[in-house]
Amino acid sequence: MNFVWSWPVIAFYIIALLTLCCGVIMLSVRKVIYMALTIGGVFIGASALYFLLGADFVGVAQILIYAGAITILIMFAIMLTNHEATEPGFKWSPKNIAAAIGSVLLAVVLLLAIRSTAWPTATTSQTALDGGNSNPMAIGLVMFKGYAIPFELVSILLIVALVGAVILAKERKEDE
Amino acid sequence: MGAAPFPVPTGSLLALGALLFCIGLFGALTKRNLIIVLVSIELMLNAANINLVTFSRLGVAPSLSGQVFSLFTMTVAAAEIAVGLALLLALFRLRKTSEVKDLNIHKW
């Protein structure tokens, strides 16, 4: 693998480092609300990565959905339940040790597999991929020409999920 | 963006996705608070999204399908977290707890 130190590569490594740091901080802090904050950092790092890869629309959707909606929703849920909650420190119980060994083993296997494979470098640029249009326009064309039925199904899924969430979270009469 | 096709090496992107996935897996297995378990699952979905966007450039016929698929994944993730947090609120109203170890009604 020949390494070219251009600006996008350096930017990628900085973004990747910050994203992984946010993930590790998420695992190590004690207060639940700080965990929600650091997960926002991970989501923003991922969206910066999408911008770097030229997937502008996915990056904006990532900021809107993940960093905007989901992080705020999680913070609301933390505030509505016991917001003073803290995680106990990492204990070396058998369950935790098994989880740690499993995760580290999976990471090692995945990294070795990635390292031993010769990945092709992409030859098409993003502008060629978009077919001359801007990225959101190209995605809209692909989505409504080729993926119209999955799009409608996903909209049904969203409606069902949101109505179900409202019904589940509503206070019921027979509970009192 | 047009001149240099894809400067970031593919293996590094996939490695980042794999590491984020493993961080999410560890969090989902060990954390006590139900909200944080849900957040860790979101982290794993996010890592899968990074892989999808990476792979959308490669292959014999590179197309935008990977990016469209990652948009669908985001929608499903949003639906999942909405229902999960609603279940959590219902549970908290019933049992005044949001810890995983207290969810053992069906355990025997």
UniProtKB/TrEMBL annotation, chain A:
Q: Can you tell me where the transmembrane regions are?
A: 6-25, 32-53, 59-80, 92-114, 147-169
Q: Where's it mainly located? A: membrane
Q: What is its EC number?
A: 7.1.1.-
Recorded topology in the membrane:
Multi-pass membrane protein
Q: Which InterPro entries match?
A: NADH_UbQ/plastoQ_OxRdtase_su6, Nuo/plastoQ_OxRdtase_6_NuoJ
Location relative to the cell: Cell membrane
Annotated catalysed reactions: a quinone + NADH + 5 H(+)(in) = a quinol + NAD(+) + 4 H(+)(out)
Question: What is its EC class?
Answer: translocase
A GO MF label: NADH dehydrogenase (ubiquinone) activity
Q: Which UniProt keywords apply?
A: Cell membrane, Membrane, NAD, Quinone, Transmembrane, Transmembrane helix
| Keyword Cell membrane in record | yes
Which is one Gene Ontology cellular component term of this protein? plasma membrane
* Gene3D superfamilies hit by this protein: NADH-ubiquinone/plastoquinone oxidoreductase chain 6, subunit NuoJ
Family statement = Belongs to the complex I subunit 6 family.
Describe its function: NDH-1 shuttles electrons from NADH, via FMN and iron-sulfur (Fe-S) centers, to quinones in the respiratory chain. Couples the redox reaction to proton translocation (for every two electrons transferred, four hydrogen ions are translocated across the cytoplasmic membrane), and thus conserves the redox energy in a proton gradient.
State what protein this is by name. Answer: NADH-quinone oxidoreductase subunit J
What species does this protein belong to?
Answer: Alicyclobacillus ferrooxydans
TrEMBL record, chain B:
Q: What is its EC number?
A: 7.1.1.-
Keyword vocabulary terms for this entry: Cell membrane, Membrane, NAD, Quinone, Translocase, Transmembrane, Transmembrane helix, Transport
Task: Give a GO molecular function annotation for the protein.
Answer: NADH dehydrogenase (quinone) (non-electrogenic) activity
The record's subcellular locations are: Cell membrane; Membrane
Top-rank taxon, per record: Bacteria
- What reactions does this protein catalyze? a quinone + NADH + 5 H(+)(in) = a quinol + NAD(+) + 4 H(+)(out)
InterPro entries according to UniProt: NADH_UbQ_OxRdtase_chain4L/K, NUOK/Mnh_C1-like
What's the chief localization of this chain? membrane
Q: Which PANTHER family match?
A: NADH-UBIQUINONE OXIDOREDUCTASE CHAIN 4L (PTHR11434:SF16), NADH-UBIQUINONE OXIDOREDUCTASE SUBUNIT ND4L (PTHR11434)
What does the subunit section of this Swiss-Prot or TrEMBL entry state?
A: NDH-1 is composed of 14 different subunits. Subunits NuoA, H, J, K, L, M, N constitute the membrane sector of the complex.
The entry's protein name is: NADH-quinone oxidoreductase subunit K
| Organism of derivation | Alicyclobacillus ferrooxydans
